[in-house]
Amino acid sequence: MKFKINRDHFSNGLAQVLNVVGSKTTMPILSNVLIEADKDFISLTTTNLDLGIRCKIKAEVKEGGAVTLPVKRLATIVRELPNLDVSFDASPNHQVKLASGGSNFRIMGIGKEEFPPLPEFGDEKSFTLDQPELVSMLKSVSYAQSSDETRYILNGVYFAFRDGKFSLVATDGRRLALIAKEMEIPATSAGAIILPAKTVSELLRMLDKGEKVKIDFSDRRCSFQIGTDKDSSGLIDSIYLYSKVVEGNYPNYQQVIPKETHQRIKLERELLLQCIHRAALVTSEKANSVKLKLSSNLLEITAQSPDFGEAHESMAISYSGPELQAAFNPSFLMDPLKALTKDEVFFEVKDEVSPGVFKTLENFICVIMPVRLS
Amino acid sequence: MSRALPTIVHLDADAFFVACEQARDPSLVGKRCAVGGTERGIISSASYEARACGVYTPMPTTRARRVCPDLILIPHTPGLYGTVSRRMFDLCEGLTPWVQRNSIDEGYLDLAPCGLRDLAAVEAAVRGLQERIRAELSISVSFGLATNKLVSQIASKLRKPRGFVVVPPGEEAAFLAPLPVGKLPGVGAKTEAMLGSRGLRLIQDLLALSPHELRALFGEGWREMVAAARGQDDRAVETEPDEAKSYSQQETFAVDLSDPAEVERIAKGMVDELMPKIRADGKRVRTLTVKVRYPDFSHASHAHSLAEATDLEAPFYAWIGPLLRAAWTRRSPLRLVSVRFSSVAAPELQLEMFAETDDRRRRLAGVLDALNRGGTARRVKHGHQLSRPPDSGVSDRG
Lengths: 374, 398
Hints:
The complex is a heterodimer of chains A (374) and B (398). Chain A is of the alpha+beta class. Chain A has 3 domains: 2-114, DNA Polymerase III, subunit A, domain 2 (DNA Polymerase III, Chain A, domain 2); 125-254, DNA Polymerase III, Chain A, domain 2; 258-368, Roll (DNA Polymerase III, Chain A, domain 2). Chain A is 17% helix and 43% strand. Chain A has helices at residues 7-17, 71-80, 131-141, 197-206, 269-280, 330-339; strands at residues 2-6, 32-38, 41-47, 51-58, 60-63, 65-70, 85-90, 95-100, 103-108, 125-130, 156-162, 165-171, 175-182, 191-196, 212-217, 221-227, 235-244, 263-268, 290-295, 298-305, 309-316, 324-328, 344-349, 356-359, 364-368, 371-372. Chain A has an 8-stranded antiparallel β-sheet. Chain A has an 8-stranded antiparallel β-sheet with strand order 14-11-12-13-25-24-23-18. Chain A has a 5-stranded antiparallel β-sheet with strand order 5-1-7-8-9. In chain A, a hairpin with a 2-residue loop joins strand 19 and strand 20. In chain A, helix 1 packs antiparallel against helix 2 (71-80) and helix 5 (269-280) runs antiparallel to helix 6 (330-339). Chain A starts with a strand and ends with a strand. Among the domains of chain B are: 16-74, MutS, DNA mismatch repair protein, domain I, CATH 3.40.1170; 174-229, Orthogonal Bundle (DNA polymerase, domain 1); 247-397, Dna Ligase, domain 1 (2-Layer Sandwich). Chain B contains 14 helices and 15 strands. A 5-stranded mixed β-sheet of chain B has the order 6-7-1-8-9. Chain B has a 5-stranded antiparallel β-sheet with strand order 12-11-13-10-15, with helices on one face. The longest helix of chain B has 21 residues, at 260-280. The two termini of chain B are 43 Å apart. Chain A binds chain B through residues 148, 150, 171, 173-174, 176, 251, 256, 286-289, 327, 329, 353, 355, 367, 369-374, and chain B through 282, 307, 345-355. Strand 26 (371-372) of chain A pairs antiparallel with strand 14 of chain B, so a sheet runs across the interface.
């Protein structure tokens, strides 16, 4: 196996697959990248058995073949090579010679036979989505995933294709973010998966390299084919991302979304974010809440911690309802405000034991359970 | 109202547990009796007649029986002392809103808000309270009345039982001067012996020393010691009780226990006893510690912290068994088991979305707490408390 490749293209390709490695002790080969040369490209594959990624890079292939090399070390070496032209030469005993300018490396590899193949998909349910739109939708909900391993069902983002809608949901049991877009869903393709948190973060890293992304899924696994037509650093075709899904029943999230609107106020997103951020500066681990108080045309945001002090922020708003107040974890309020991009958001509140709800005109809802102060 | 008017009152109930029992059963009045563990526990309160015989607290019951063979031993009556204490402090609060409850049988009052004109009026008010407690609860309480907490506290303990000592303003130092140094806060038996060996027996002896000598004796805290010896103290009566740092309960078994299931049942019963208190305080706890004590008094403990603080029994039940096994490693029966809840959480409670089970449990707990409130024994118990074999007695609960 022999090829010539542009250093930056090679480096870019390795960066795509670098994060997905298995634990070294159980299967050493999982810390390697599978490099396959064919026609005018090489493909790079890594997997940890739960999640796998494959991308293709332009290369001048002189002799086809395959080898696996430790991905972290290889990526570091390639990035540091002195010259843009890199030649890669693997011998049948899996030793690789890497040369660039005056630099020469000999690296011990392992044969491809031991490398677990990425499962390919057959007749699964399949949808094609816009990459920029999926990125924006994922970012609007992914912060709400749970990181509590005892609630593994919530350690991911719920993808639902049904009822003429594509919805993404994430919740940690204290706040829930949901975004939906209308989409034609053929009855035979309707279904839902919970995409594990690790896959979500890899997917977010991969997306926005092209126009379209195709998702295939079954009850146990899914794959994404991420078009790379906007990429100019050597990637060709699409990136293939394979993942197991979180198996189990996602909680009935519809029941926690308030059916009725009590008091709704329109807010300037940036301004509200800044006020909450400042008020939160006085909170502590033990007193981690900010209080929102609504009165005639005024929103007051207060926070205090007994051992430090207090903060008071006020915002002029348009409001003529009754006086109301509720307290929330400031991060739960700030996360959606940071993730959204529109200038205006709506906030709905009822009383101090009912959830607060952020909404936008784009089918976005974030339900936040309050902190009860006694 | 004059600053100098002595409005600070220290009240200290006399032989409180015994007094409560005597109030319930007047035939005990005037007898050598004590409240404490019947078999192998300790004396927690002794009548003055018993004290005259040499019974003191805390003293192992077996020794108390030896020094006073005709001692009438009364087992703890669950709930009684707390109820009497509450009624006693309620009477105090009828006099002034500024009441500081230090413990079940002792506390401070500040009569400043009563607007009394002179010392005679203050004295009359406090004597009235002493009489009311006597009449309504049939227990006796000693009072000390002074311009500050330090002096009033020393005064109340001076002429027990039924004491009533007034220290007029300006006479604090003169009042303390002839008393033994051990009366001062911070001077324990060891310090008192050390001072005694240097000829310093009375509080006035301290005032005769130079700052240099005082520093040599008491180190950096010497100024506080001199202030105390002069009867100076500016601490205010705190109406808000100090927040509980932990909740605990222990039980010394009548006979050493070697059946893990029985010990586990007893420990779970403690969870059932403590959690209503935690709920009543509006608190939540995160850490559970189970401690065991062996017959040779050596002990071991093990703890677990939940991810989130809770005010429900259920999340802790599952940990009683594992913690008990982790602590109880010796192949020996146990003399005592104790359960302690700590990491008491701030009053903030992050509400949950998918917590119907917890909501239901909390509603159930609220109903059970209401049913069990007020009585001396729990009316509704959890099923795991039903397996108590008829022969296992319980000796004391602290």
